[in-house]
């Protein structure tokens, strides 16, 4: 490790030491520089900006479909998270993508319906994105980026993020690439894996089949024209992700069956 990168890591450690320490839903220690209220407000502002700049569907079957899945998943969150002003939007965009922002704002592209073949698979991707919100990943991300770059624009991070972008434009020049590859990207992969775990459990608790999460990613691979190597990506390698989802699914089957027996039988769409 070079002296510049060593200095960067020590500077980040000092800055993070001044942040609030919290624990994620999976028990991981997190460092937050912002309050939930600040992030929720900025998430709502970013969501409104995105809706003003991109074409969205109004009403219709797909909006009702997404809203139904979101409602079923949100009902499995703790009361303080259920009480957020959850809002959904369907963006007219052929790319298979979905995202969620602090404050309970969920967006799904129309292209996702070509990849998510049924309500369980749509719940897999939306549950993953809700998992990011529940685990305060945006706060964690921008807090770490603030420690890395003195020029961070938090609103820009929120408006630009769909949890698949590297955020390289948020890191200052001079040591920025070292921070991006050595610190920010591995951290984002940790968040992605955690969101998978949270989302798959939310699925099961809501009465969606958790085994369908792996099927969703098989469909994503089939629809993909290729991807970057895992070590240069914010997302885990798809095959590694599928193996993790498949390995977790059997332990969640009793949760899924108990949810169905308790009356959690969502009927949202395909």
Automatic annotation (TrEMBL):
<keyword id="KW-0645">Protease</keyword>
<feature type="domain" description="Peptidase M48">
    <location>
        <begin position="61"/>
        <end position="248"/>
    </location>
</feature>
<keyword id="KW-0732">Signal</keyword>
<keyword id="KW-0378">Hydrolase</keyword>
<keyword id="KW-0479">Metal-binding</keyword>
<dbReference type="InterPro" id="IPR051156">
    <property type="entry name" value="Mito/Outer_Membr_Metalloprot"/>
</dbReference>
<keyword id="KW-0482">Metalloprotease</keyword>
<protein>
    <submittedName>
        <fullName>Peptidase</fullName>
    </submittedName>
</protein>
<comment type="similarity">
    <text>Belongs to the peptidase M48 family.</text>
</comment>
<dbReference type="Pfam" id="PF01435">
    <property type="entry name" value="Peptidase_M48"/>
</dbReference>
<feature type="signal peptide">
    <location>
        <begin position="1"/>
        <end position="20"/>
    </location>
</feature>
<keyword id="KW-0862">Zinc</keyword>
<dbReference type="InterPro" id="IPR001915">
    <property type="entry name" value="Peptidase_M48"/>
</dbReference>
């Amino acid at each position: 490790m070079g002296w510049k990168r060593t200095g960067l890591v020590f500077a980040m450690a000092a800055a993070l030491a001044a942040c609030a320490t919290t624990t994620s839903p999976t028990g991981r220690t997190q460092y937050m520089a912002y309050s939930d209220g600040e992030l929720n407000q900025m998430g709502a502002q970013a969501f409104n900006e995105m809706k003003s700049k991109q074409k969205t569907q109004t009403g219709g079957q797909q909006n009702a479909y997404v809203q139904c899945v979101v409602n079923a998943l949100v009902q499995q969150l703790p009361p303080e998270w259920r009480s957020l002003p959850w809002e959904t939007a369907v963006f007219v965009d052929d790319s298979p993508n979905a995202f969620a922002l602090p404050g309970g704002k969920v967006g799904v592209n129309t292209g996702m319906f070509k990849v998510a073949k049924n309500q369980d698979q749509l719940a897999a991707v939306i549950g993953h994105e809700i998992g990011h919100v529940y685990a305060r990943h945006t706060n964690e991300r921008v807090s770490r980026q603030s420690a890395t770059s003195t020029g961070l624009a938090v609103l820009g991070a929120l408006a630009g993020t769909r949890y698949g972008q590297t955020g390289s434009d948020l890191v200052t020049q001079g040591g920025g690439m070292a921070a991006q590859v050595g610190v920010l990207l591995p951290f984002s992969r940790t968040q992605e894996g955690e969101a998978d775990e949270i989302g798959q459990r939310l699925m099961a608790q809501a009465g969606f089949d958790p085994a369908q999460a792996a099927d969703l990613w098989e469909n994503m691979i089939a629809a993909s024209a290729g991807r970057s190597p895992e070590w240069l990506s914010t997302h885990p390698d798809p095959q590694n992700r599928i193996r993790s989802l498949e390995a977790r699914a059997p332990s969640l089957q009793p949760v899924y069956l108990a949810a169905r027996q308790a009356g959690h039988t969502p009927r949202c769409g395909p």
